[in-house]
Amino acid sequence: MAEIEIGIGKSGRRAYGFDDIAIVPSRRTRDPEDVDISWQIDAYEFSLPLLGSAMDGVVSPRTAIELGLLGGLGVLNLEGLWTKYEDPQPVLDEIAELDPAVATARMQELYKEPVKEELIGRRIEQMKAAGITVAASLTPQKVHQWHKLALDAGLDILVIQGTVVSAEHVSSRHEPLNLKEFIARYDIPVIVGGTASYGGALHLMRTGAAGILVGVGPGNACTSRGVLGIGVPQATAIADAAGARSRHLEETGRYVHIIADGGMRTGGDVAKAIAVGADAVMLGSPLARASEAPGKGYHWGMATFHADLPRGARVKVEQIGSLREILLGPAAQNDGTLNLCGALKTSMATCGYATIKEFQRAEVMVAPSLQTEGKHYQRAQGVGMGRR
Questions:
Q1: pTM of the model
Q2: Which end of the chain offers a freer environment for a tag, N or C, measured as fewer CB atoms within 10 Å?
Q3: pLDDT (tens digit, 9 = 90+) per residue, 226-242?
Q4: Cα gap 75→64, rounded to integer Å
Q5: b vs e for 83-100, b when ≥16 Cβ sit within 10 Å of the residue's Cβ?
Q6: What's 371's domain CATH number?
Q7: Cis peptide bond upstream of 194, omega within 30
Q8: Residue 153: which of 206, 185, 117, 191 has the closest Cα?
Q9: How many domains does the chain have?
Q10: Are the C-beta atoms of 184 and 190 separated by less than 8 Å?
């Protein structure tokens, strides 16, 4: 791809986010009821290609169970409030009431509470008893310390997650996690991320990961792009990772799933993520808007409370419906924030594709006026597509 000159000494590629692109209808259409949006990773099958993000305001054991029963996969943060407090509800209630001026500082204090190891197993056993596939996340720094407790309790899928996770972490202070050796040691699918580049994605795939999370800084609550200046707009990041997946498949015959992590607000965003190459999506703020969400209308990222360099904000998302309504409808609003999976099926049907794998081949074009063309009155009145 041609690079653009930034200055005499530096050039770079142009990158695109979801708002910059459009899915092009094909010559064929089909009935949405004939569209299959199911997804499978390793031996685990899901009727919805959707993961709930491992954030305390989004996924609790209860919402993970509800997501699992609806056909998705909730990921519980094993280093968050659910393993720090026997009953985290008073803490969640306090966070929801915090004045914005002191929210970050107070959350840093609340999250200083150490993880209680017995709670790791208890939370996983609680979800396991409901008969769902159980997934949970750890940061690379804590995998060695706590993964065994999670596996012994019946964990099905492990997510190793950080702002950026690489296959070649270098440290002079401690022995870094060797992802390739760790993944080879256990008969459990491991999802690793985030990453946002072709090279980073390819190297993570070569560790043996079953899936990779693609996204650095696109989430509604994340401030990494401002604090650190790093990130790649999601449409380009996913497409680059899809290119790495094709190369890895050619080299090894092994397919690695791409999970778009962050930057999606509407059903159209979910559809675009899959059209540019994702197999599934990980959602945070859209699910934080559910009446069952533990954040009670608030949402914050996993690095919001970092002791030295917080890279997230507590944002108000407001509750708009039940988890079922947000994922499966019916929708009482016309801005695409309800019935996300119904929108995905309708998008696929309108373009003539029957499966996720087929939809990844959809034609996409750069369309910077897609969100504004002919929408003057909606934008002026703050309705429909003007409610962003």
A1: 0.95
A2: N
A3: 898 999 999 999 999 99
A4: 7
A5: bbbeebeebbeebeebee
A6: 3.20.20.70
A7: yes
A8: 117
A9: 1
A10: no
